[in-house]
Amino acid sequence: MLHGVLANGMDREVVPGYGYVRISAVRQKTLLGLIPWGVEEARLRVSGVKVLVDGKPVDYKVVEEGGGVTVKYNVWRPIPPGGTVDVELRFTVEGLVGDGLLFREYSVTLGFPHESVERLRVELEPRGGWLCYASPASSLTYEGLKPGASVRVEAEVSKYLPLPLLPLRGSIVFWLSLAVLGGAAVLAYRRHR
Fold first, then answer.
1. Which residue, 132, 140, 162, 169, has fewest beta-carbon neighbours within 10 Å?
2. SS3 of 187, please?
3. CA dihedral of 32, 38, 39, 43, whole degrees rounded to 10
4. C-alpha angle 29/96/106, rounded to 5°?
5. Counting beta carbons within 10 angstroms of the beta carbon of residue 133, is it exposed (0 to 12), middle (13 to 18) or buried (19 or more)?
6. Dist CA 22 CA 64 (whole Å)
7. Are 154 and 135 in contact (CB under 8 A)?
């Protein structure tokens, strides 16, 4: 879910007309689900779209282009000087996930080509796992986005291990822990030999 606040910073009433949110993503390619092997642009599909402006449903159009998706929605409401409009977009994105052996990675860029956004909150609702990493880690709330700005959100979901939200990717923590334990086992074996 995206929740944004469009603000009128001008000294006269404005009617935005249309709002746009561009969604694109790259995925980490891996060899055998383990070894990083470059990146590729993800082919995205959006479904279950619902757009609310000031709590009321509005018309929208979804355009798939060049691997990304643009959601164009109507904002044909006057905003008085200093006034705001709440915009909420809910949708499901398919093709976003980089699927590994134990973890799923998300990396998405949200772009706002034509409007300023006073405040934006991004909510991640992973299915089939535990959110164990999000970047930026402190908050998925952004303020003062100018026209043409974009926001990159990265996340990782543990498929099987109920890991808490970590400051590092869960896959890095897991594989480093496994390497340390393996090294400790080899050292213990050599000492007892």
1. 162
2. helix
3. -50
4. 75
5. buried
6. 10
7. yes
The residue ranges of the chain whose pLDDT is under 50 are: none
> Which residue type, as a one-letter code, is found at position 181?
L
Residue-range definition of the domain harbouring residue 86? 2-192
Residue 70 CA to residue 122 CA, distance in Å, equals: 17
Q: Residues 114, 18: contact at Cβ < 8 Å?
A: yes
Structure tokens of 29?
A: 């390619």
**Cα 61 to Cα 49: distance, rounded to the nearest angstrom:** 9
What whole-number distance in Å separates Cα of residue 90 and Cα of residue 48? 7
Written as six digits, the tokens of 182 are 């393996």
Q: Which residue has the tokens 């402006």?
A: 53
pLDDT digits (tens, 9 = 90+) for 141-167: 777 777 777 888 888 888 888 888 888
Rg (Cα) of the chain, in Å, rounded? 21
pLDDT in tens, 111-131: 776 667 777 777 777 777 888
pTM of the model: 0.65
